[in-house]
Every structure is written in C-alpha cells, then in structure tokens.
C-alpha cells in the first residue's frame, strides 16, 4: 500500500487523461444518484442485448486468427485488444461511430493507455506521451458526443435501443415523460428525470472504455495464456460447453446459457485472481483512517492499496499461485467463500466497478466460444511470466500464440470424448 500525500489529489482542468471531469471523484449522495442513473445500463435485458453484438465480433476475430498463414506463433496482446476495442465500441455506441471512427479511436486510444504507465514524464509538453494522450482523449470524446447526439434523435423518433447509449437515453426520455406521474415519490422522480448532456455521456463512456479496454484486454490476454498453459482447464471448459450445448454448437449464446457455465465462469474468476488486470487504485481518505495499531492515515491523504496481496492471501486461497476453479465450487465452508472480500478484482465499496457483470459475461462468452471453435498453443518464452505494467498488466513477451480450427466433434461422441479429441 502506498500513502502519498496529505492533500486531496488535484482535480483541476489540467488533469490530462481520463479524469477531465470531477464526476469520477464524486462521493456521498451525488455519487449514489449518479450511479442510480447508470443502473439501467447493466440489467439482464441490457446484458442480453450486448451479448448479441459481442458474439458476431468474436467469431470474426477468431476467423482472422485461424486464417493466419504464418505457421509460427506471434504476439496476440494487440489482437486481443482489437477484439475488446471493437466489442466495446459497438456495445457502447452501436453504429453511430463509423468504421473509420472506430479505427481512429482504436489507434489513438492506445496513446492514452501508454500515458497511464506508472513511469511517465508528467507534463503535457508537445511530443510527450501525456500531450499525445490529451489530443487522443479530445478526439475520442468528440466521437462519443456525436454518438450521444445521434442516439437522442433516433430514440426521440421512436427507435428501439440497440446499444448502451441508446438504453441510457431511452431511460432518460421515458423518465421525462413520467415526470408528472403522481405515483412516483419525490426521490424516485428526481432520480428518473436526471438528464445527462452529450458531454457527460461522452465522459462516462470514456471511463467505461478504460475499464472495458485496458483492464479487459489484460484479463483476456492472461485468460488465453492460462488455459493454454494448463490444458486440463481447457479440456474441462470444452466438456462443459459440449454438455450444455448438445448438438447445437452454432446456436447463439444466451445469458441463460452463460448462467449455466459454472466451470467456465470460475476459470475466468481464477484467471482474474491470479493476474488482476489492475493492481492498484487510488483512494482519498475523507476522514482519519486507521491502517493498523501503529499508523492512522490523516484525513485528505491519498491511499493506493494494492489488490495483489489480498488476491493471493493463502488464508482465503490455499495454494494461491495455482488456478483452481474448483475452489469456488466447494460450498460456503470453503476458504474462498468464507473470505469474499478478498476477491477485489473489481474493487469494493461505493466505487466498485459498475460493469463487473458485463466484464465477467464478456470474458466467459469469449472463452466459451473460443473453446469449441479453435485450438491454440502458447509459445512459452523466458519473459512469458514476467509482468509488464501499462495501465493494466500484460505478459512481457506480448503473449505469443498460434490458433487453428477445431474440427466439429462426432455426433455420437459424449461431451467427455468431444473435449478430449
């Protein structure tokens, strides 16, 4: 844990990257109200809509990976990032952003990621990573403002939501229409009629993109690496997929089906525990906070806890450096279930990641779809297990892999036989 200063972190207009709005630092009632306005974006209905968008993107990227004629393994950290970027932009903004706009955001957003490395020249002088990131942020926000404005027009004309921004704006418009409903209490009415400007929506989507892009790209990279390095994990994932899907391997994936993927979800959960995408998050102490018997953090101090030790605590996770999905399937008396607060991958408290269910759904769906359509091998190098810290963490060698098509199983094969083939 780092304890950095006695003052509140600067939140001036010069804050260069993601935090150009104070909204990300909200606390108390304003923060609760803001979160209420976002809850509609991650309901089961919303997640089901996103899943339909995601699956088509997965399959297209998988096909490109399998079609690569080079017989040698290559680095897949950036292709994993590309899959996440396209998925995120289409889920968040639908078709309001053109293919050119999507490419511009993808190419330039990487400059924001690089500027979030732990060691950087901290001033926005021309040519520095921070300067380039500020320019990239401005361009990205303009695209998101455009998406918001276009969505407001389409939703006002009676269109049906088909992306996250649509769902958000539809909820605002519905709330506005119910403003005079006498059955709503004052608190409910105030929450429902909260309108967000194009700028506010753009800034919120930018923060969503950070979580879905940098953090999930890290999570996806390590997920593919972990199951390749431990074939038994992948065999069991495949067995579960063949059992749940029966002979309908090409049927669209659904949220109900993902709910049944207990083993696959727990592989994802363990992979995130072993290599948490974000290893530290800054907090501000709003009152004196006792760390232990010897030290109390003064009010106003920035505290940066590391999640790593909690996620590798042997009391909660015996053999903490091993991926053991079964530890989450052993009932309430298991150490993992007895220490639920140790699983801090998505944070805790009022500022926990609001997109947690979306992230877990996404990673589970990618692994599930990949397991039955592809085989892949990980080329282990001397730096495969060394960690590079950018905004999230990544294998230092970029995760060198080779993908190939997986033949369809025999119609008479049992799930066990199909998984072992």
From TrEMBL:
It comes from the Eukaryota. Pfam families: p450. InterPro entries: Cyt_P450, Cyt_P450_CS, Cyt_P450_E_grp-IV, Cyt_P450_sf. GO terms for molecular function: C-22 sterol desaturase (NADPH) activity; heme binding; iron ion binding; monooxygenase activity. Residues 400-421 are annotated as: Disordered. Its cofactor is heme. Heme binds at residue 353. SUPFAM superfamilies: Cytochrome P450. Its EC number is 1.14.19.41. Belongs to the cytochrome P450 family. This is sterol 22-desaturase. Keywords: Heme, Iron, Metal-binding, Monooxygenase, Oxidoreductase. The keyword Iron applies. GO terms for biological process: sterol metabolic process.
């Amino acid at each position: 844990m780092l304890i950095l200063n006695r003052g509140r972190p600067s939140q001036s207009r010069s804050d260069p990257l993601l935090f150009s709005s104070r909204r990300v630092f909200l606390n108390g009632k304003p923060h609760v109200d803001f979160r209420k306005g976002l809850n509609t974006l991650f309901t089961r209905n919303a997640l089901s809509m996103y899943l339909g968008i995601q699956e088509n993107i997965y399959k297209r990227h998988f096909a490109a990976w399998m079609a690569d004629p080079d017989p040698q393994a290559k680095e897949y950290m950036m292709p994993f990032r590309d899959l996440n970027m396209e998925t995120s932009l289409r889920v968040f903004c639908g078709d309001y952003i053109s293919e050119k706009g999507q490419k511009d955001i993808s190419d330039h957003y990487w400059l924001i990621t690089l500027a979030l490395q732990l060691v950087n020249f901290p001033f926005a002088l021309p040519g520095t990573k921070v300067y380039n990131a500020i320019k990239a942020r401005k361009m990205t926000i303009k695209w998101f403002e455009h998406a918001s404005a276009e969505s407001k027009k389409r939703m006002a004309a009676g269109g049906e939501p088909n992306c996250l921004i649509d769902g958000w704006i539809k909820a605002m418009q519905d709330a506005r229409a119910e403003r005079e409903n006498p059955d709503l209490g004052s608190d409910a009415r105030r929450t429902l009629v909260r309108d967000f400007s194009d700028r506010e929506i753009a800034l919120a989507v930018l923060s969503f993109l950070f979580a879905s892009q940098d953090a999930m790209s890290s999570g996806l990279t390590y997920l593919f690496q972990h199951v390749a390095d431990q074939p038994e994990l992948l065999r069991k994932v495949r067995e579960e997929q063949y059992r749940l899907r029966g002979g309908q391997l090409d049927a669209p994936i659904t949220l109900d089906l993902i709910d049944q993927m207990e083993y696959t979800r727990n592989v994802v959960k363990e992979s995130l525990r072993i290599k948490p995408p974000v290893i530290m998050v800054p907090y501000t102490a709003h009152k004196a906070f006792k760390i232990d018997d010897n030290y109390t953090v003064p009010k106003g101090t920035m505290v940066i806890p590391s999640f790593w030790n909690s996620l590798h605590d042997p009391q909660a996770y015996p053999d903490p450096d091993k991926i053991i999905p079964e530890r989450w399937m052993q009932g309430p008396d298991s150490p993992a279930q007895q220490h639920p607060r140790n699983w801090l991958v998505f944070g805790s408290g009022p500022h926990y990641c609001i997109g947690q269910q979306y992230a877990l759904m996404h990673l589970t769906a990618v692994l599930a779809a990949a397991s039955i359509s592809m085989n892949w091998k990980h080329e282990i190098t001397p730096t495969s297990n060394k960690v590079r810290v950018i905004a999230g963490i990544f294998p230092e060698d970029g995760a060198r892999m080779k993908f190939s098509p997986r033949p369809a199983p025999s119609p008479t094969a049992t799930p066990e036989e199909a998984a072992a083939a």
